[in-house]
Amino acid sequence: MVAFSPDVFVKFLAEEDDAPVVMLNLLRFVPEGGRERHLEYLRMAEPILARFGASILFRGDGLEILTTGPVERWDAVLLVQYPRRTAFREMVEDAEYQKAFEVGKSALADIVLQPLQISKGL
């Protein structure tokens, strides 16, 4: 199911908002036309992302997993950079984005959405 965890989402938005954030999107498509609907979602979403100062840094298809253990293969990965956390919130609340999001949700069997911050000290 594609839904935000309300408590985690509120906590994420409450933290410092002065630095860019990158969203790691691990995507698993529904078997029947999911990849095609996801591409349609991206066509709809890219101009909206730009309006909020966000951009796709990387988009790639998953290959075979090289490590052992209980891991699952993902069909695709996206890295999307937002100028700040509130830009992400404003985008997901935007009416035009909500329409694109419905297309995107219909493409996915599963998703992991994990925000990343630039490491200090690496």
UniProtKB/TrEMBL annotation:
<feature type="domain" description="DUF1330">
    <location>
        <begin position="37"/>
        <end position="107"/>
    </location>
</feature>
<dbReference type="Pfam" id="PF07045">
    <property type="entry name" value="DUF1330"/>
</dbReference>
<protein>
    <submittedName>
        <fullName>DUF1330 domain-containing protein</fullName>
    </submittedName>
</protein>
<dbReference type="InterPro" id="IPR011008">
    <property type="entry name" value="Dimeric_a/b-barrel"/>
</dbReference>
<dbReference type="InterPro" id="IPR010753">
    <property type="entry name" value="DUF1330"/>
</dbReference>
